[in-house]
From TrEMBL:
Belongs to the short-chain dehydrogenases/reductases (SDR) family. This is Short-chain dehydrogenase. One of its GO terms (molecular function) is oxidoreductase activity, acting on the CH-OH group of donors, NAD or NADP as acceptor. GO terms for biological process: fatty acid elongation. Gene3D superfamilies: NAD(P)-binding Rossmann-like Domain. It holds the Pfam family adh_short. The lineage of its organism: Bacteria, Pseudomonadati, Pseudomonadota, Alphaproteobacteria, Hyphomicrobiales. CDD domains: DHPR_SDR_c_like. It comes from the Bacteria.
């Protein structure tokens, strides 16, 4: 990934930070985009853009354009920004469905639309989205989240078809990711069976690499050690 310029959204989160660090270790240059504020100074390899609301198309475009301008190009976009909510359909708040759609679908849509011209210019553009295994068959309490992640799956497929020959578009579908937040919410689970952020990062960065030039429109389950 030497010299590749990669935008990682949600880059300050549990998964995004690992993906960004792994990419940097492989020689990539990273534009880190997150809703959380950051005041980190820009370096030759890292450009952080904090306080960005990717549910707003104008803010997404401003951030993506700033990243491309800073590095002079853009080779890959990794859409990790998103959110999770657990509540039943009958007892939940309808606004949760709107929030999940905004955080999971619209962030990926807005960032992708902003990045497309830059990725086409790259000649080897990549978009990698984060879907969910839970969107293939939703369980109790997962309706709003699963529906939004299913939207990410369909967005991935539509973009892959529209951009074929110019940009590859794929998604990883993790099961449960081994994060501190998930351990706290499910303390009795067998953490050894969960997929680690580093394992997931390996798959994401493969899809963002030149080696994955023949892969597009794929929805790749990442199950951990079942």
């Amino acid at each position: 990934m030497d010299g590749k310029v990669i935008v990682v959204t949600g880059a300050l989160g549990a998964l995004g930070s690992v993906v960004a660090d792994e990419a940097l270790a492989r020689g990539a240059r990273i534009a880190s985009v997150d809703h959380a504020p950051t005041q980190a100074p820009a370096t030759a390899d890292l450009f952080e853009l904090g306080g960005v609301d990717l549910t707003d198309a104008a803010q997404a475009r401003k951030a993506i354009d700033a990243a491309a301008r800073h590095f002079g190009k853009l080779d890959a976009l990794i859409n990790i920004a998103g959110g999770f909510a657990f509540e039943t359909v009958a007892d939940g708040d309808p606004r949760t469905w709107q929030r999940m759609h905004a955080l999971n679908v619209m962030t990926a849509l807005n960032a992708s639309r902003a990045a497309i011209p830059h990725l086409v210019a790259s000649g080897a553009g990549r978009i990698v989205n984060v879907g969910a295994m839970g969107a293939l068959q939703a369980g109790s309490g997962m309706g709003a989240y699963a529906a939004s992640k299913a939207g990410v799956h369909r967005l991935t497929e539509a973009l892959a078809a529209e951009l074929k020959g110019n940009i590859t578009v794929n998604a990883v579908l993790p099961s449960i990711i081994d994060t501190a937040a998930n351990r706290a919410s499910m303390p009795k689970a067998d953490f050894a069976k969960w997929v680690t952020p580093k394992e997931l990062a390996e798959v994401i960065l493969f899809l963002a690499s030149d080696a994955a030039s023949a892969v597009t429109g794929a929805l790749l389950p990442v199950n951990g050690r079942v």
